[in-house]
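idk why but the lab printer keeps eating my pages so im just putting this in chat instead. protein + zinc ion:
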Amino acid sequence: MSDLKLCQGTSCHTYNTKDRLKGTKENKTFQTRRRSSFYYGQGNFCSLNCQNDWFYDFGNKAIDHFGRLTEPKKLTEENAWIKTYDWRGGVDSSHRFYTLNKITQEQRPLTEDQYNDSSYTLNER
Ligand SMILES: [Zn+2]
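predcted complex ->
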């Protein structure tokens, strides 16, 4: 029982589903869902509905707490590199890996290891 997590949805207990109904005859209550894992909101919510309820109640506070954008973010040439590949199926299934600059459209070849290395990037940090 102790390994179970509670859905963090602020209105989870108000959705009248059978699995939320707990207790015996005269002590029945609808309760927040409790599960070993959840799929939504980094494992914090039982449904997209519950995630949205939380954001509706706390979203503004959360954004203000962690920093509200006051100017648009800009993707510049220096940080516009993405990793991609051309898929090659068939007998020779070696894909062509490369980095692509989304601003200049310049391409530079990558090895498969560089492609799979999450710390490898041409972007400035
Ligand atoms: Zn929920």
